[in-house]
Amino acid sequence: MNDLSNPPRDRSGARRKAQNHFEAAETRTNLVKQIVAAESAALDARTKKLRALRLAKEEADRAEALLNPPKRVVKKTRRSIQAQSLEE
Question: Domain locations in the chain?
């Protein structure tokens, strides 16, 4: 028989290669998860800070409105032309 028709099987080598592949993929996945978690934490912190600033500004605006109420704007009434004057 020809030696090339039935090559010897290297099961441990194939297993090692596959295991190395899966470990590398798992390492990349864990790294991506860590990066996403860090970005999410940073976004949460920024959102919390901006919310606190917005609430403080709204409270300051409310206090300012109580101390200095806005002046009432008087609407000017428009004079309408009556239908009788148009007929004449």
Answer: 11-73
The reported pTM is 0.53
Pick the closest to residue 47 from 57, 59, 55, 58 (CA basis). 55
Please list, residue by residue across 65-86, b when 16 or more beta carbons sit within 10 angstroms of its beta carbon and e when fewer do.
eeeeeeeeeeeeeeeeeeeeee
CA distance 60 to 56: 6
Q: How far is the CA of 11 from the CAs of 18, 19, 65, in angstroms?
A: 10, 12, 80
Residue whose token pair is 């009432």: 72
Segment 15-72, tens digit of pLDDT: 889 999 999 999 999 999 999 999 999 999 999 999 999 999 999 999 999 988 878 8
